[in-house]
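Dear Dr. K.,

Following up on our conversation at the group meeting, I've run the structure prediction for DoxX family protein from Hymenobacter lapidiphilus. I'm pasting the input sequence below exactly as I used it, so you can double-check it against your construct before we proceed with anything downstream. Let me know if the numbering doesn't match what you have in your notebook.
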Amino acid sequence: MALFENRYRTHDLGLLLLRVGIGFMFTVHGYPKLTGGPPVWAEIGGVMKLVGLNFAPVFWGFLAAFAEAIGGQLLAVGLFFRWTCALLLGTMIMATIMHLSKGDDFSGYSHALESAFLFLGLAFTGPGRFSLDQVLFPAPRRLY
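The predicted structure tokens came back this morning:
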């Protein structure tokens, strides 16, 4: 039956929809953090002390806000895709650690953990054909 055949001709369209949807949501979620300025960044970056990094909380907070807001946009258009996934993965790992350290139950940390798995999988999958990475940095053509 054609429905169950392993053709996946719509693979790149599926990646585009996933990238745009998740990218938009992370942009909307991260923009208030990014525009919150140093006081908000310091609060967000203070989470890094949970993994032994007690210095520069404003920098770490800015990096997390940047990863969500700007990284969401880069994810949506598929630009610098694997680097963006790596930044978002790190941010979601720290968010998971923060929720667990506060004693949150599964519903409190599940979104961050699910997002971490999503970004890890996307980093391995790549952005797909409909991405700026594909336009700007095409794979070399095979000669065989």
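Two things stood out to me. Residues 89 and 120 are 6 Å apart (CA to CA). The first helix runs from residue 11 to 35.

Best regards,
J.T.
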